[in-house]
Amino acid sequence: MKQTDPRRLAYDVLCRVEEGGYADLALDGALNAAALADPRDRGLATELVYGVLRRQGRLDFALAHFSRQPLAKLESRVLWLLRLGAHQLLHLERVPARAAVHTTVELARALGLERATGFINGLLRSLERGRNVIPWPDAEFDPRGHLVHALSLPPWLAGRWLNEFAVDEALALATAMQEGAPFTLRANTLRCTREELLEALNSAGHSAAATTYAPEGITVLHRGNAPLPGSNEGWFQVQDEASMLIPHLLGAQTGELIYDGCAAPGGKTTQIAALTGNGARIIASDLHPKRLQLVRQGAARLGCTAIECRPFDLFRIPDFLDDGACDRILLDAPCTGLGVLRRNPESRWRRSEADILELARIQRQLLANVAPKVRPGGILLYSVCTITPEETDHVIDNFLADHPDFRRDDPHPDLPAAWAELFDSAGALRTFPHRHGGMDAFYAVRLRRQG
């Protein structure tokens, strides 16, 4: 039977995430299989999944304050139900408190947890009555506690951000990472202009506006009931504004050979094709053939005819490319993803300090493997959606020390003057959601091989 209850759907997705699934894939699969005809139900299910995962630490702190039992001793299914109820009580003003408690108790019954209904009912009612006296750690006197318990960062990450940023900056970044990410589209300039897509969106009852930096970007501020116009015609790609900046920084030109070494799912790859009017030869590879199929599908939908897909493990040197053959290489490397915690909220509870060092090692290896394929005078662009020093500056410093034939390349002459605020003094792109209009946190450096 198809699922018709958005809260049950959200609960099922959260359980799959706990078992190792990815929130975005599990939610998409559940929504596609469900019978939620009302867009509001689909929206509620989405908000419950992402909201609970983003604020899990905050919800647990609030629940623990009123629980007679340590949360660690609760059955996992009961704890997820409590988090669902608590998120509605604390963060969803449009859901009446009575409804939040009642629906959670009824869901427990439907799941065969009758024995826990009294406990769930009592704890959520206590939370509702005492929500205004929860002893959140003070941001001024206990910033680490505030980051962990009020802003839902794992303790190791809270400590890191306090070491890497000023207190106010760490708090602002954590606050931004707790909120929903903007819904942004890249107008596919092979099929339409940004202005044409904006007009179509607003005429269809949606509210949309141009992004600040990316010249083809659109933020959908509010979605109406109608489908997004141009979806079947390939007018747009869902893509964050920070991601849209990377192909511009690469600067590909018609007639060039471009290699995209970690291409899936293909947003940047197809944007490179659009920026060159299908006039550059683009070779896209990825370790996983199934993920590379996403690039093929996206290219076909968007009308990108110059992309060649090739499964390849970049732990090996790409011997299908001659040394010095590529005009430009994009290495959008695997990383901890700490800059996109809003979009992949389960990562904040899965990542650890050890992951940072391991991924930095991988990033250094991948850069070393693609570097010989850049022609003298050509460009190697390194990008990641994270902000750790080990995966950003340290990787680049290490690479340059080992490869004296590469230098940092000043991107400013090729980019709009308004982009200057997105770059640091060394010429690296650094975007942050709390500084730059809500876009994801990305890092990128353009390197040029000396002739």
Layout of secondary structure:
Layout: H1 6-18, H2 23-33, H3 39-54, H4 56-66, H5 76-91, H6 97-110, H7 117-130, H8 143-150, H9 155-164, H10 167-178, E1 183-187, H11 194-203, E2 207-210, E3 217-222, E4 236-238, H12 241-250, E5 257-260, H13 267-275, E6 281-286, H14 289-302, E7 307-311, E8 326-332, H15 347-350, H16 353-370, E9 374-384, H17 393-402, E10 406-408, E11 429-430, E12 443-449
Parallel strand pairs: 5-6, 5-8, 6-7, 8-9
Antiparallel strand pairs: 1-3, 1-4, 2-3, 9-12, 10-12, 11-12
Describe this structure in words.
This protein folds into three domains: 127 residues, N-utilizing Substance Protein B Homolog, Chain A (Orthogonal Bundle); 31 residues, no CATH class; 209 residues, Rossmann fold (3-Layer(aba) Sandwich). The chain contains 17 helices and twelve strands. Strands 5, 6, 7, 8, 9, 10, 11 and 12 form an eight-stranded mixed sheet that branches. It has a four-stranded antiparallel sheet with strand order 2-3-1-4, covered by helices on one side. The mean pLDDT is 96.
